[in-house]
Design a protein that fits this description.
It catalyses: Endohydrolysis of (1->4)-beta-D-xylosidic linkages in xylans. Residues 1-116 form the GH10 domain. It is an enzyme of class 3 (hydrolase). Its EC number is 3.2.1.8. The chain is mainly alpha-helical and 116 residues long. The chain has one domain: Glycosidases (TIM Barrel, Alpha-Beta Barrel), CATH 3.20.20. Helices cover 37% and strands 9% of the residues. Strands 1-2-3 form a three-stranded parallel beta sheet, covered by helices on one side. The longest helix is centred in the last third of the chain and has 19 residues, at 92-110. It is elongated and about 50 Å long. The two termini are 21 Å apart.
Length: 116
């Protein structure tokens, strides 16, 4: 119903969804037309070690969304928590550089997979 009215109704999911009943509900795109990764795209999940990127969790959510014909609301490039520990030791200039690098790498990787 939401999709028919031009709205996207969705839910946050984890990349390791194994609950077949929940997946069946999600795959009903009449109800859900959007997925948001709960934690898989947050900074500590994608760049736990500086400049070492890991996208498997986010890729899994994108795969589920593609299989069900849903859009992905990528979440989140910068968050007040769930940041890697190595950020705590950076100067302002280093932090800005790390932020630019992180956003560039993540958006380059996910690109058109995200509608927002």
């Amino acid at each position: 119903m939401a999709k028919a009215s031009g709205k996207y109704l969705g839910t946050a999911v984890d990349q390791d969804m194994k609950d077949t009943a929940a997946l069946k509900v999600l795959k009903n795109i009449m109800d859900f037309g959007m997925l948001t990764p709960g934690n898989a795209m947050k900074w500590d999940a994608t760049e736990y070690t500086q400049n070492t990127f890991k996208f498997d969790g986010g890729d899994a959510v994108v795969k589920i969304a593609k299989e069900m014909g849903a859009q992905v609301r990528c979440h989140t490039l910068l968050w007040h928590s769930q940041t890697p520990q190595w950020l705590q030791t950076l100067s302002k200039a280093e932090m800005l550089s790390a932020l630019k690098n992180h956003i560039t790498k993540v958006m380059t990787h996910f690109g058109d997979s995200c509608y927002a």
